[in-house]
Structures are given as structure tokens and as C-alpha cells.
Amino acid sequence: MPKAYWVVTYRSVSDPQKLAAYAKLAVAATAPFGARFLARGDPAVAYEQGLKERTVITEYPSLEKATASYDSPAYQEALKALEATVLCAMFGLLKDRSSNTARRAASRRPGPSRN
Fold this sequence. Notes:
With about 120 residues, this protein is α+β, with helices and mostly antiparallel strands. It has helices at about 15-30, 65-70, 75-80, 100-105; strands at about 5-15, 35-40, 55-60, 85-95. The chain has a single domain (about 5-100), classed as 2-Layer Sandwich (Alpha-Beta Plaits), CATH 3.30.70.100. A four-stranded antiparallel sheet has the order 2-3-1-4. Helix 1 packs antiparallel against helix 3. It is flat and about 35 Å long.
């Protein structure tokens, strides 16, 4: 089953303490769904039109687990901790397609020799 990723960027944070409280609740709320944080923080460098804004990338075992995590009562409570302190520029769920390609390539069997 392909993995899925939450990608969140924060345009502005007016209360870092509330963001910290949310983060603590969010980690506990998403853990039962297999969440694994791959990156959290501010970019060291931004290229082209990129902005240096806080970014969080979370990996899930599947798209179903990722959506169930977001919809869970525990995560919805975590979101309430943010109140109006964060302007989230982008929240997206991505489905990993590369694992399907690799799996198909690995399962191919060579055909009979034509010599």
C-alpha cells in the first residue's frame, strides 16, 4: 500500500506558545495512525519564489491512515489549541506513487530467451 504525506506550511505564527501546545497534542493524536515526522522547522534556504516559512512533513503508512488521523476527535481537539494564532498557507495530503512503481518493477519476471 502506498504511503501518504501531510505537507503543511505556516505563513505566520502570532503565538509560538500556542503552536507548541498544538504540536504536543498533535504528536499524541497522530501517533496511533502511524504518523512519522520527517521534517519540522524553518527552511535554511529558500530558492526561486520560495518563502522561508515553517514547514512540517509527516509520513503515514497509507492515505486512509492519514485522513483518519486528521478526522480523529483527538486531532480535532489539537487543532482547537491553535485558535487563531497560525495562518496556514497550505495543507495537503500526498499519495506516494513511487512505491507502486518500484513494486511493479521488482515483480517483473524476465521473459524467455530469444537466442
